[in-house]
Amino acid sequence: MLERCDLTETRDTKTIEKELVSLVEKLGVLQRAISSRKIPVMIVFDGWNESGITEITREIIRSLDPRGYDLYAIKSPTPEDAGHPFMWRFWSKTPENGRIAIFVRSWFSRAITEEMTRAAWIKSFKDKRKAINNFEQQLTDSGVVIVKFFLHISKDEQKRRLEHQERNPLNAWRVTPRVWSIHRQYDDNLPLIDDLISKTHTESAPWYIIPATDLGFALLKVNQALVKVIEDRIDKNDAALKTAGKKEKGSIKEVHLPKKREVRLESSPPTTCSREECLETLENLQIEMIEFHSILHKRKIPLIIVYEGRDAAGKGGSIMRITRFMHPLGFNVAPVAAPTDAEKKHHYLWRFYSKYPKAGHIAIFDRSWYGRVLVERVEGFCSETEWKRAYTEINDMEAEFCENGGGIIKFWLEISKEEQLKRFQQRVADQLKIWKITEEDWRNREKWDLYTQAIDDMISYTNTGYAPWTIIPSDEKWYARVRTMTTLVDFCQSLF
Questions:
Q1: 214 and 307 fall within a common domain
Q2: What is the mean pLDDT of residues 187-194?
Q3: Sign of the C-alpha dihedral, residues 430, 436, 441, 445?
Q4: What's the CATH number where 479 sits?
Q5: 431 with 314, same domain?
Q6: 152 touches 212 (CB < 8 A)
Q7: Per-residue pLDDT tens over the stretch 27-55
Q8: Which of these, 36, 104, 428, 486, could form a disulfide with 73 (CB 3.0-4.6 Å)?
Q9: Residue 21 sits in which domain range?
């Protein structure tokens, strides 16, 4: 794509200045329009060293109300960043609905830089491309506008600008030996950069290659593109609002579903054991878990344990048994409730990335991102297109975590309708447990069959080799706890 960019293209200064006046005014108006319509926007500025990224960014933000955007300068990853999947730190910077996030360099330049340095912890370049495309596709599917600019200059122009900076006492510190080293690799890096641009240039998140030999002309091209993309999105948004509520044939967007693997939900255990036998077995397993927890920490392997299940299936009791003797600084339990108002302003996966375990730690989710295809599906909190799309989005998210050296194990605790009623009644009668029962639990029970279908689909579409589901029959609590611990210990052993 870079070879098609005419680096000599320009306009006369007066024409550029005249057009910019109008575009700058429009950009300010459009910022208010996306704010009122709750449209999130991400603007990415990437390019060669000394291509004018800082200068262009400075001029763009002058057109905007500073209360409506966030600016991120992306630098080398911190040790904590390095202990997470490649895209992890960028998820936290995605904008709220109606806000703009501006990236001075991005995941693109990090992928290029880390490929050039070939740091030992970095996964393959191919996986980075896949992670970038998944990230951008998930965001644009949810309504985020992504506009990506690559500022392109020639090797000779870059050299001229570096020499000019060196002669300036105020800027000479910026031209380090490493910067010159990268300049000398320009010809080697060009095909690498061009390949990544081509592989991450998609219909939903295209690249705009900006000739930046003349920075005034580059600024004009950037403004033109921003105005057009945002205007088009606002027009599309307004047109959709006019047709909202009209149930037209084919209004549900076709979604490609993952391969389905049939499962059976059983609430009764194939074997039983007395409470005393289970307690003895549990104690032995808990001791083993202490050892495995230590090994995970030493080998810097992050582990995610997901608990899902029907209300009163015993998730809390099982989590207590798993964590009883584990080092408290080496794990975190994340109880997941309905999203807050702040969380609703982001992509539904946004709030879970912040709870990811760092290298060597364990994160236990008491309910999880699977709420998208369970509660949100059954209760109508998201559209059919959205929850169908979530199967692939979740599989991609879990795959990236595992490809980065992590492990994910998922438990579904299943109880019978009769046993659930019995436990509900026990909670109502017990003053120490009555807080556990809510009106929502009773409402969910009335939709038992709808939830059963959603559960079957969830497990069938997301039961992968890298992040498997284990169905735990939970009518007998002590059997369920032993079975969960046994499965977890076996899974931890398989990670080494």
A1: no
A2: 93
A3: negative
A4: 3.40.50.300
A5: yes
A6: yes
A7: 999 999 999 999 999 999 999 999 999 99
A8: 104
A9: 2-238
Alpha carbon 186 to chain centroid, angstroms: 32
| Structural domain contains residue 251 | no
The reply to whether 346 and 477 lie within a common domain is: yes
Last residue of a domain, one of 238, 265, 288: 238
Please give the pLDDT value at position 344. 95
Tally of domains in the chain: 2
Name the phi and psi angles at 384, rounded to 5. Answer: -60, -40
- Rounded-to-integer distance, Cα 438 and Cα 424, Å: 10
Residue 267 pLDDT > 80: no
Pairing of strands 145-152, 207-211: parallel
User: Do 334 and 469 have their domain in common?
Assistant: yes
Task: Tell me whether residue 255 is in a domain.
Answer: no
Q: Sign of the CA dihedral 16, 146, 53, 159? A: negative
Domain-embedded: residue 320: yes
Residue 118: predicted pLDDT: 60
Residues 44 and 144: their CA atoms lie apart, in Å, by: 13
The pLDDT of residue 276: 86
- Same domain membership, residue 343 and residue 232: no
The DSSP element (H or E) to which 127 belongs, if any, is helix 125-141
Backbone phi, psi, residue 411, to 5°: -110, 130
Question: Is the pLDDT assigned to residue 247 strictly greater than 60?
Answer: no
- Shortest CA distance to 149 belongs to which of 204, 192, 88, 106? 106
Instruction: Report angle CA 274, 277, 280 to the nearest 5 degrees.
Output: 150
* Domain co-membership, 102 together with 227: yes
* Cβ(45)–Cβ(57) below 8 Å: yes
Q: Is the dihedral of CA 353, 358, 360, 365 positive or negative?
A: negative
Distance of CA 24 to the CA centre of its chain: 32
Could you give the angle at the alpha carbon of 245 between the alpha carbons of 241 and 251, nearest 5°?
A: 90
| pLDDT the model gives residue 253 | 67
224 and 335, same domain (yes or no): no
Over residues 75-109, the pLDDT tens digits come to 999 988 988 999 999 999 999 999 999 999 999 99
Q: Of 187, 217, 238, at which residue does a domain stop? A: 238
Q: Are residues 183 and 291 in the same domain?
A: no
Distances (CA, A) of 293 to 102, 243, 322, 361, 364: 40, 54, 11, 8, 13
Residue 459 has what pLDDT? 96
pLDDT of residue 245: 56
Instruction: Tell whether 193 is covered by a domain.
Output: yes
Question: What is the average pLDDT score of the chain?
Answer: 92
pLDDT exceeds cutoff 60 at 397? yes
Q: Among 265-274, 281-290, 374-383, 417-426, which is the least confidently predicted range?
A: 265-274
